[in-house]
What does this fold into?
Amino acid sequence: MAWDLELNPILLEELYVWIDSIPLSKTKTKIERDFSDGILVAEIIRHYLPDMVDMHNYTVANSFNPKKINWGQLNKRILCPLTLDLPDKIIIDLCNGKPGVVEIFLFKLRQKIDEELELRQKLESQRLPSPNQSLLALNIIDSKKESTNIVSSRSSRISKSIGSFTSRWVSRLFYEELKQQSLEQDEEIQILRAKLRRLEHILQLKDIRISELIEETQRKQLTILGTGKNKNKYTATVSHN
It folds into this structure.
């Protein structure tokens, strides 16, 4: 993905108007500094796609390292599922408030949000699934059930382990390590679920497009057949005369 774009004044003005139309928790003064910790980015995504964002995962930051942590969380949890994976260099530039970088990022983010909203709208309009879609849904449901069973099994084992390890003869450090492992596993599962939802959307959208192409092909075939019949009638009339 190219990050060396140059936004002309018209695109920049449209971008600023779009940002101003969104209710944010912080007054915007200098855009590269205001967005450097990623908090306002999370708020923008939550405004349009509230199911994708948990604001408690992000904290207001003034120094570089906490800012980078916020951007890392955003990249892993939200931006990657939206196919807007940020390279490390771009994350560093955003944290440092490098002029011009945040505008390019927000421009791309707006495109991805629009694509996601359009995708969801098309899926919503297709409430009655085709046989292929039904099969896809069943496969996804089975996958989710299997994933849920794995998660439940892991959680159960970890919970039992934590319950026994919190006894007085086990060190607190070992208990904290187990707890951290549990949190990391939960995070990985959430990421996989987000990617699975995205894949489901893409496959269903392709199925919709295939159905549209089939209908269009059938209409064209009927038109060609109708034209052929008219030509045959005309030939027969001429021969008779």
About this structure: Residues 119 and 225 are 35 Å apart (CA to CA). The domain at 9-126 is CATH 1.10.418.10 (Actin-binding Protein, T-fimbrin; domain 1). The chain is about 75% helix and 0% strand.
